[in-house]
UniProtKB/TrEMBL annotation:
Subunit details: Component of the SCF (SKP1-CUL1-F-box protein) E3 ubiquitin ligase complexes.
SKP1 component dimerisation domain sequence ranges: 152-198
SMART domains linked to this entry: Skp1
Source domain of life: Eukaryota
Name by which UniProt lists this protein: E3 ubiquitin ligase complex SCF subunit
Xref: InterPro entries: SKP1, SKP1-like, SKP1-like_dim_sf, SKP1/BTB/POZ_sf, Skp1_comp_dimer, Skp1_comp_POZ
Pathway: Protein modification; protein ubiquitination
Keyword entries, A-Z: Ubl conjugation pathway
An example Gene Ontology biological process: ubiquitin-dependent protein catabolic process
Domain called SKP1 component POZ: residue spans: 15-70
Protein's job: Essential component of the SCF (SKP1-CUL1-F-box protein) E3 ubiquitin ligase complexes, which mediate the ubiquitination and subsequent proteasomal degradation of target proteins. Controls sulfur metabolite repression, probably by mediating the inactivation or degradation of the metR transcription factor.
The keyword Flavoprotein appears for this protein: no
Similarity comment: Belongs to the SKP1 family.
Length: 210
């Protein structure tokens, strides 16, 4: 029988860190935690499962919070979609006379899966606030989510980074991420003139494309 809660001991760079408690349902969103639980299923789960991912306690704590908040998303969103589709006007393709029960059920099942998948890809207001942190912390979460195999959190982190750089110039992006420019102004100008076709820039003037 699966436990209702498990304890995870963070091991950061060989150092024993904090012990976190997470529900079984929340942990199942992580491929790594799911595998670890499977490996330790013969045990009584009285002791904390070691997680050796070189993740800071702070970052892992935030990810545990994210997993906990989103642990029932699939069930909750599926229920919302089912209620939405109870109204025939919300069904695409429309159901009505001429469609047998089999066809109706298949159409609704397909639409339900599509709507659930779309909603699961959308950042909630809580997620937007979750990522209102310094840039380096966003990347810490992204890297940790990738290691822990939490694809949805990877997608949300990547979407957040994309939103951060949207509409910014190269210089603004460098400042945002602390990237040092390897080129002198003269070298940049020469690249723009000779390789402009490969380096599209929305902030260039027409003269710079010559």
């Amino acid at each position: 029988m699966a436990p209702t809660h498990i304890s995870v001991k963070n091991v950061d760079n060989g150092r024993d860190g904090e012990v976190f408690t997470i529900t079984y349902q929340a942990a199942m969103q992580s491929g790594i935690l799911k595998d670890l639980i499977s490996d330790f299923e013969h045990a009584s789960f009285d002791e904390a499962i070691p997680l050796m991912g070189n993740i800071s306690d702070h970052t892992l704590g935030r990810i545990i919070s994210w997993l906990t908040i989103h642990s029932r998303d699939v069930a909750r969103i599926t229920e919302q979609v089912k209620e939405f589709l109870e109204n025939p006007q919300n069904r695409q393709p429309p159901t009505g006379p001429g469609m047998d029960d089999d066809a109706v059920n298949k159409a609704l099942s397909s639409q339900e899966r599509t709507l659930v998948a779309e909603k699961l890809k959308t950042l909630t207001p809580w997620d937007v606030q979750f990522f209102e942190v310094p840039t380096d912390e966003v990347f810490d979460i992204l890297l940790a989510a990738n290691y822990l195999d939490i694809q949805r959190l990877v997608d949300f982190s990547s979407q957040t980074v994309a939103n951060m750089i949207k509409g910014k110039t190269t210089e603004q992006i460098r400042d945002l991420f602390g990237i040092v420019n390897d080129f002198t102004p003269e070298e940049e100008d020469e690249l723009r003139r000779t390789e402009g076709w490969a380096l599209p820039r929305c902030d260039w003037t027409p003269e710079q494309w010559q």
